[in-house]
Every structure is written in C-alpha cells, then in structure tokens.
Design goal:
It is a single chain. With 201 residues, this protein is of the alpha+beta class. The chain folds into 2 domains: 2-80 and 191-197, Glutaredoxin (3-Layer(aba) Sandwich), CATH 3.40.30.10; 88-187, Glutathione S-transferase Yfyf (Class Pi), Chain A, domain 2, CATH 1.20.1050. Helices cover 53% and strands 9% of the residues. The chain has helices spanning 12-21, 42-45, 65-75, 88-112, 118-139, 152-161, 163-166, 175-185, 188-197, and strands spanning 2-5, 26-29, 36-37, 40-41, 53-55, 61-63. The strands form 2 sheets. Strands 2-1-5-6 form a 4-stranded mixed β-sheet. A hairpin with a 2-residue loop joins strand 3 and strand 4 (40-41). Helix 4 (88-112) runs parallel beside helix 6 (152-161). The mean pLDDT is 97. Bound molecules: glutathione. Glutathione binds next to loops.
Length: 201
C-alpha cells in the first residue's frame, strides 16, 4: 500500500494513522508546488491531483481524508483507532471526522491562500476560532476527541491544528486544545511522523 503525501499537509493524518496502527506502507512524496510525484504529473496518476491518496497493492486508489482514515482504522480494528462499525460511537466518530474535515481543515484554507486579502483572512480566523472553541470545550472533560482513547480523529485534528503555528496564529486562548496538542505530539508514532516529514512545530 502506498500513501501519497506532502510534508506537513493534511496527509500527515493518514501518515500518523498508519504508523499508530503499525501497518506496512510506502510513503510517496508529492510536490504540491510543482504537481510532480517522482518526476511525473501526480494528476496523471490520481486525477484529483491532491493528497492524501492511498494506492492499494492491486492498483486501486482511495482518496478523501475521512474515507482514508476510516479505511486505515478498519484494516487494524485491534488498534482501536475507531469504534466498531454499526455502533452509535462509530457515528459519533464520523460526526467528528466530518467536523474536522469541513470546519477545521477547510476553515484553514483561506489562511493558506496567498490571494486571500488581510480582512478576509481575519474573518476566516474568527470563524475558525468558534470551531476551535467547541473543541476546547470538549477537551476540558476528556483526553481525546472520542473520549479517553486516541483515534484517527485525533490524528486529523492534530495535523490541521498544527497549521496554526505555521501560520503564526496563537492557540493560547484555548488551554485545553494547547495541552491536548502537546500530549499528542509526544506520542511515539506522532513524533516519528513529524521527524520523517521534517516538521518542527
Ligand atoms: N477533499 C480532500 C482535500 C484534501 C486537501 O485539501 N489536500 C491539500 C493538502 S492539505 C492538497 O493536496 N492541495 C493541493 C491541491 O488542491 O491541488 C480531503 O478531504 O482529503
């Protein structure tokens, strides 16, 4: 199985999930600036042209972070990276994964976009702040997003909230989120992925 990734981008969530699960995989780097992967246009391999993407040993592709994280968790149920299929807890996990994808991950997009004007960037950060506040409230009473156990939702939330530092946006006003990120960063699998991707913050 190959994981197509770009260092520090949202594909770091799948990199963390695969490493936490102890699954064998080959990381393949995509240069999002040039669109090239090993010198070839990535779009010619995966028409979406963006990461994350998984390619199975038989050549099939799977894309979209929430699908990939669910797939990885289900490949190794004993790793406990998601509640069992068909349970209420699994739907709550899907609720959080969707929140992370559409509210947090995509909430950061205008902040990364060089063509976004300063006032639109501030508006995007204010909107994103209301979502981070929700997460902060949740983390006041539990260690991880789904309760007391690390899951792929944490791999995803950690990955995208880590962008705040890269964008010089402080998370200090959310102490539960700050403490949570510090704890996740210390997990051996997460530390190994940060090192492998060359991410310092
Ligand atoms: N809908 C996709 C979005 C993935 C995404 O935003 N990928 C970014 C990196 S974080 C990317 O590859 N951007 C390059 C591009 O869109 O061309 C998902 O949820 O997985």
């Amino acid at each position: 199985m190959k994981l197509y990734f770009s260092p520090g981008s949202c594909s770091m969530a799948e990199h963390i999930a695969l490493t936490e699960a102890g699954l064998p995989f080959e990381p393949v780097r995509v240069d999002l600036r040039t669109g090239l992967c090993n010198g070839e246009p990535f779009k010619a391999m995966n028409p979406k042209g963006y990461v994350p993407a998984l390619q199975l040993a038989d050549g099939r592709w799977l894309t979209e972070g929430v699908a990939l994280l669910s797939y990885i968790a289900d490949l190794k149920p004993e790793a406990g990276l998601l509640p069992a299929l068909g349970t209420w807890e699994r739907y709550k996990a899907l609720e959080w994964l969707t929140f992370i994808s559409t509210e947090l991950h995509k909430g950061f997009s205008p902040l990364w976009n060089p063509s976004t004007g300063l006032s639109d960037k501030e508006a995007a950060w204010e909107r994103l702040s209301t979502r981070i506040e929700l997460l902060n409230d949740l983390l006041k009473t539990q260690d991880f997003i789904l309760g007391q156990q690390f899951s792929v939702a944490d791999a995803y939330a950690f990955t995208v909230l880590n962008w705040a530092g890269m964008l010089k946006r402080s998370l200090e006003r959310w102490p539960s989120v700050t403490a949570y990120l510090g704890k996740i960063r210390e997990r051996p699998a997460v530390a190994a992925v940060l090192k492998a991707e060359g991410i310092k913050s």
